[in-house]
Design a protein that fits this description.
It is a single chain. By secondary structure, the protein is mainly β. The longest helix is centred in the N-terminal third of the chain and has 10 residues. It has six helices and 96 strands.
Length: 1270
């Protein structure tokens, strides 16, 4: 039985989901989850959980399940016996003072007394502990702090306690404008070394020396505390979203943001790391604080509230990317929640949705000041919040009504056994999409009918009234007046509709005792468990036709036999089908007996004049060794026979059969002595054997795979005959293996060949050879003869492919991996192969990798035959680098190749003889080759510690993290030019890098040197002594030949947030006011740079330029992110306003003779009734005016304005005076198919039934219009 809102199961870590109880009436139908409320009658009201790690945190670690409400303390006693009363909120510090009083370093935390004392160990090495979820242990942790701080914690958990000496310091956290006291541990923890910690604070980093590829680390705080964590360093060679995540926090975004504070849902957090490449690192810090119980929660900061009333707002923006978080309000089961939003400012990248209410509040989100009512006693908010996003939503609680006269959109759930449902009073012309739930006890059934349904009204499109959870299917648009509908076995009925003040319906429900009758009626009864009975359609109410299911259930040791004595299907669209585990019949044959175990379904679409009568009985389930197709569905006996059912007449039967007879060390052998088809469409298929067959070859033995289940599907008609038998035999572990008989072998030596003397059509089979630890398989085929070109014999898992293998050529497995053989062999084909296992060595085409610190790699000496394509990888541990050089690279054929990847010189390069190559931070050198007879290579490698030096060499060092340093080419390196890159990494987010080159002398025409990651764009050749400033890190790309020279130096400086910004020196400003100018006195060619101004949520930026002097022919100065058209050159002294994204972008190319001077201010964003074009971008108000800015001179302005109201709107213009030839004013709506209006006629009223009006315009001097909407 499904809970009220349905269930969504998330499978695995990829977010695969299955929706059960999609429609309450059709819970046996599994369908994909859909978004629209109309299509999804039963919807989980909780926030969508798109990322699997979040699903675990939200649905598993919190108790949002049916058990949560029944097994935990969400009962009346819970709220009366504990402090969840008014006194609780007045006696504690959860008031305004709590948020305004600073936290002092002196802390005493004593949640509960403790019983077990654990002392601090003498060693500073952390003690890893392993959480267990079942044992109960009482832990007392006494932590000694400087400044005389004592912390006592009692927790019931499964953890060994780790006690750490802590130092208290007051630091600025990544959360802006919040200074808090954090606890810094004297020791740190390492992921992949330590398993967990119960410390109140700590640092967590990656164990660089661990060989593990997947690790997790659990932080467990006491029950009454919340964990706060942020990462000050995240360095990954692959995407951080794919290999490092935090599980159990409020954010549902997968990718971590540097320095963003994350808060736990409960008292646990898990850090999960999957190693994709070497060189990863991170540095994260956590603290714990008392879990706040507040009536003023912040999204992304608090998980839930049980306050009777409160206000929810987003957390202050941290300036990073948007974040998706969830929040829930859970109140007394006897109460429901009213919630409304008095403020809501969204951007194109932000959202706010409310679930668990009677209305569908998804995109575009809640309507301002509209009151939404919870279905039950919980409401769920989810939001994508970011810069420019703001909302203010209030909730209160009211007692749940007990009424038999429910109002749609006001009430969400029936509170009486019988009652009526009608639209609520006070609706406006704005449509609402709502739902209403009716439930009944398991021994009852709901009967519902509607006497009036009138949904045709202005503003309502695609109208419908859907009843889900009833036996009739597909009634979204075909609900029949006064027809009685009956609930399914789940007894959950849901009504969904779109209504406004011009729509009406009246539906009535009653609950009646559930019948378990032997005389069942389709569309009236859902399930029967009686031993015998009949099923017929309902009489009298089948016009128009009804489509309903019926299910028969028997005990697990019983089978059902059903046959139909009457079938009268007259209408072309009508049907009757019977389905079970053995057979599918559509329609069933008159008087034919159908057999199935445990359950059978009858589904029918019955109209006027149609009829049928079917009868069933239950009998003991047979497990016989003499099985009949269509009579028996499965067998578990060790031996047996399978034949057609003798004497069965009528149309062909489609039946299935399975044999599950053998334990793991046994296998099933199946063969057919007779297969005789006289009907052209007959078939007999077997699967679960090494080679599937349709039909099997007579007298050929088929052997089961390791799953030990053979499945048969068939369609046999009158005159067809099959006779088959099976036995079970021990599964052999032999060195002498046969294709299609043996599945795999783990013997160190052996042979593989086909069955001798096997006749008939070719057989497609596979075989695997499994190696021992640290062993390699070597396979050689002495015979490979394929008589038919369509047949094949392939070896995979070897270093080089073999299709077919070359006779007497040795093939070696890839390191410690298996060899797989796939084949299609017929009569006359001959194959014989032998294998051995040997220790792994280092030879091309015999090994694929090496992890030794030093070594040499060469081809197999004396190998004949065509060229071989083989890979080889050299691995070094973290903190090391590989140096490799080749003393010989001799390729005699144009088709031969030998290339190297993973070095600082790039990918797929042919090594220059005696040139030393250095590995990147991935610490993998990959060699690929295609070498023929007589060709030779000889390469040697060593591994050495990786250096972090301030005197870096191009093609020798990959990265530097020092605060200051130089980068120059390698000296004395001869040979062709080298293409290499170099990175200066910024390890301190509060600083930025500046780089300049005192020498740039490139002699070759093909040589190049470019700098990336700086504010300047396209620095393809740095100007001597010009200073370039980083945005984050700096990268150098180069092609340097012998004789080229450069010398570049970098330093790090603190980032500044100044009101006097300089182009090409400052990248961003977040100050409320400021100026932007070029760097005075900067000589040299023009510089192309960008600059951005960011404002906090709820604010807008206004910018104007007092000087715009562009003297150069290629110079430009462009502003975007404003309401005016994108990328314009600003007019002097004209004020430009930012869009709702709250960011203004400047892009420029400025030379010595150019000058600009621009000033900006930030002001609160207005939601005005009197709007000005180019100053206001949009509104959500249902009435207002729009005009150009009076007195604005200069070139014409192209601006847009949108009225985001999703209900019927009327707009008219008292004046439309466009005097310039290129001026225009246009109205359009994205919500209907109406033609755009350009220009509007003065005093003409334009109606948009679905709202959402978009105004676009180009207005210049002398143009004017005055438009009003309502």
């Amino acid at each position: 039985m499904c809970p009220l809102f349905g269930i969504v199961w998330y499978i695995g870590c990829k977010g695969v989901y299955i929706t059960a109880c999609f429609t309450i009436g059709n819970s046996y139908v599994r369908q994909p989850r859909r978004n629209t409320l109309k299509d999804e009658a039963v919807r989980d009201p909780r926030p969508d959980c798109h990322l699997p790690r979040r699903c675990h945190a939200y649905y598993t670690k919190t108790n949002y399940t049916q058990a949560y409400y029944t097994k935990t303390n969400y009962t009346q006693d819970y709220y009366t016996k504990t402090n969840y009363t008014q006194d609780y909120y007045t006696k504690t510090d959860y008031t305004q003072d709590y948020y305004t009083k600073p936290t002092t370093p002196k802390i005493t935390i004593t949640p509960k007394p403790a019983t077990t004392k654990i002392t601090t160990p003498k060693s500073t090495k952390p003690i890893p502990t392993t959480p267990k979820t079942t044992l109960k242990t009482t832990v007392k942790t006494t932590t000694t702090l400087k400044q005389n701080i004592t912390t006592s914690v009692k927790s019931t958990s499964t953890l060994k306690s780790t006690t750490t000496n802590l130092i208290v310091t007051t630091t600025q956290t990544p959360n802006p404008n919040v200074s808090t006291t954090t606890l810094k541990p004297a020791t740190k923890f390492l992921v992949c070394r330590d398993a967990n910690s119960t410390a109140l604070a700590g640092t967590i980093q990656l164990d660089q020396n661990s060989p593990k590829s997947y690790c997790s680390f659990d932080i467990v705080a006491p029950q009454d505390r919340q964990i706060r964590i942020y990462c000050s360093s995240l360095n990954f060679n692959s995407s951080p979203s794919s290999n490092f995540i935090i599980n159990g926090d409020l954010d549902t975004n997968e990718q971590l943001v540097l320095n963003r504070m994350y808060y736990s849902v409960n008292n646990t957090l898990s850090l999960i790391y999957s190693k994709l490449s070497n060189g990863d690192s991170f540095d994260c810090q956590w603290t714990t604080a008392p879990a706040e119980i507040t009536s003023k929660p912040l999204l992304c900061r608090h998980a839930q509230s049980s306050s009777a009333s409160g206000i929810i707002q987003p957390s202050p923006s941290d300036g990073g990317p948007s974040r998706k978080c969830f929040f829930s309000v859970n109140v007394l089961p006897t109460h429901r929640i009213q919630i409304s939003c008095s403020e809501l400012n969204r951007t194109s990248e932000t959202t706010l949705s409310i679930d668990g209410v009677t209305e569908n509040v998804q995109y575009p989100g809640p309507v301002l000041n509209r009151v939404y009512y919870s279905v039950d006693n919980s409401v769920y908010l989810s939001s994508q919040v970011g810069n420019g996003m703001w909302f203010n939503c209030n909730w209160t609680t009211i007692p749940k009504p007990v009424t038999a006269n429910s109002q749609f959109c006001l009430h969400g759930m029936a509170s009486t056994a019988n009652g009526t449902i009608q639209p609520m009073t006070g609706l406006t012309d704005e449509p609402k999409t709502c739902r209403f739930y009716i439930t009944a006890p398991s021994n009852n059934q709901i009967q519902i009918s509607c006497s009036v349904v009138n949904l045709q009204a202005p503003g309502i499109y695609n109208s419908y009234l859907s009843i889900g959870g009833v036996l009739d299917r597909y009634i979204d648009y075909s609900l029949i007046l006064n027809r009685l509908y009956y609930s399914t076995a789940d007894n959950n009925v849901v009504l969904t509709s779109q209504v406004n003040n011009a729509t009406w319906f009246n539906c009535k429900w009653v609950t009646i005792p559930k019948e378990n009758t032997t005389n069942s009626k389709l569309c009236r009864h859902a399930v029967s468990t009686t031993a015998t009975g009949t099923i017929q359609p309902m009489t009298g109410d089948v016009d128009p036709p009804r489509d309903c299911p019926f299910t028969l259930n028997a005990d697990y040791n019983k089978e059902i036999q059903i046959s139909c004595s009457a079938i009268n299907i007259l209408n072309t669209d009508s049907y009757l089908l019977i389905s079970g585990s053995n057979e599918f019949a559509s329609p069933p044959v008159l008087n034919r007996v159908y057999y199935t175990s445990s359950q059978i379904s009858v589904v029918s679409l019955i109209g006027n004049g149609d009829g049928f009568e079917c009868k069933w009985i239950t009998t003991p389930l047979q497990n016989t060794s003499d099985a009949k197709l269509c009579r028996h569905g499965s067998a578990t006996s060790a031996n047996g026979t399978l034949q057609s059912m003798a004497g069965d007449t009528g149309p062909p039967r489609s039946c299935s059969f399975s044999i599950s007879a053998a334990p793991y060390d046994q296998q099933i052998q199946f063969s057919c002595s007779a297969i005789n088809f006289v009907n052209p469409n007959s078939y007999f298929k077997i699967s679960g054997t090494f080679d599937s067959a349709n039909p099997p070859v007579v007298n050929r033995v088929y052997t089961s795979t390791v799953n030990n289940k053979i499945s048969i599907s068939s369609q046999l008609g009158e005159g067809d005959w099959i006779s088959c038998q099976w036995t079970t035999t021990p599964r052999e572990r032999t060195p002498d293996n046969k294709l299609c008989y043996n599945r795999e072998s783990s013997t160190p030596n052996g042979t593989i060949q086909p069955f001798a003397g096997d006749t008939g059509s070719p057989r497609q089979c596979s075989f695997s050879i499994l190696p021992s630890y640290n062993q390699q398989i070597e396979i050689l085929c002495s015979t490979v003869t394929l008589a038919d070109a369509k047949n094949y014999f392939r070896i995979s898992g070897a270093i080089d492919s073999a299709d077919p293998p070359i006779v007497k050529r040795l093939y070696a497995s890839k390191s410690n991996t298996r060899i797989d053989i796939s084949s299609k062999l017929g009569n006359g084909d001959q194959v014989k192969c032998n294998w051995t296992t040997t220790p792994i060595g280092i030879v091309i085409c015999r090994q694929t990798e090496a992890k030794s610190a030093n070594g040499t790699i060469q081809p197999i000496a004396g190998d004949t035959g065509p060229p071989r394509e083989c890979p080889f990888n050299i691995y070094a541990p973290s903190g090391q680098e590989i140096r490799i050089f080749c003393t010989a690279v001799s390729l005699t054929s144009d088709s031969s190749s030998f290339s190297m990847s993973g070095s600082l010189d790039g990918e797929s390069i042919q090594p220059v003889v005696n040139r030393v190559y250095y590995s990147t931070s991935s610490n993998i050198i990959s060699l690929t080759s295609s070498l023929g007879n007589g060709e030779w290579v000889n390469c040697q490698w060593i591994t050495v510690p990786r250096m972090n030096t301030s005197d870096s060499k191009l093609c020798r060092h990959e990265m530097a993290t020092t605060a200051n340093g130089t980068i120059t080419p390698l000296t004395g390196d001869t040979g062709p030019p080298r293409i290499c890159s170099f990175t200066v990494s910024n390890v301190d987010s509060a600083k930025q890098i500046q780089i300049s080159c005192s020498v740039v002398n490139l002699n070759s025409a093909t040589s190049s040197l470019s700098i990336g990651g700086v504010i300047d764009s396209n620095v393809n050749l740095p100007m001597v002594n010009r200073v370039y400033t980083s945005t984050d890190y700096i990268s150098l790309q180069s092609q340097i030949a012998n004789g080229d020279l450069f010398n570049c130096k970098w330093t790090t400086i603190p980032k500044k947030n100044t009101t006097n910004s300089q182009l090409c020196l400052d990248e961003e400003a977040t100050t409320a006011n400021g100026t932007i100018q070029p760097i005075a006195g900067d000589v040299g060619p023009p510089r192309r740079c960008r600059f951005v101004i960011n404002a906090e949520a709820g604010k807008q930026i206004q910018i104007s330029c007092s000087v715009v002097n562009l003297a150069g022919d290629t110079s430009f100065w462009r502003i975007s992110g404003i309401i005016d058209s994108v990328g314009l050159t600003p007019s002097v002294n004209r004020v430009y306003t930012s869009t709702s994204n709250n960011a203004v972008f400047m892009n420029s190319r400025i030379g010595n003779e150019d000058w600009i001077n621009c000033n900006w201010t930030t002001t609160p964003r207005e939601n005005a009734t009197n709007n000005k074009l180019c100053r206001h971008q949009s509104t959500v108000l249902k009435s207002g005016t729009i005009q150009p800015i009076a007195g604005d001179t200069g070139p014409s302005r192209e601006c847009g304005f949108s009225i985001n109201v999703y209900s019927s709107l009327q707009i008219s213009c008292s004046t439309v005076n466009l005097v310039n030839p290129d001026s225009y004013l246009q109205f359009m709506s994205n919500s209907d198919n109406a033609e755009p209006v350009n220009p509007p006629v003065a005093n003409t009223v334009y109606t948009y039934p679905y709202g959402n009006i978009q105004l676009t315009s180009k207005v210049g001097d002398g143009d004017w219009f005055d438009c009003k909407w309502k």
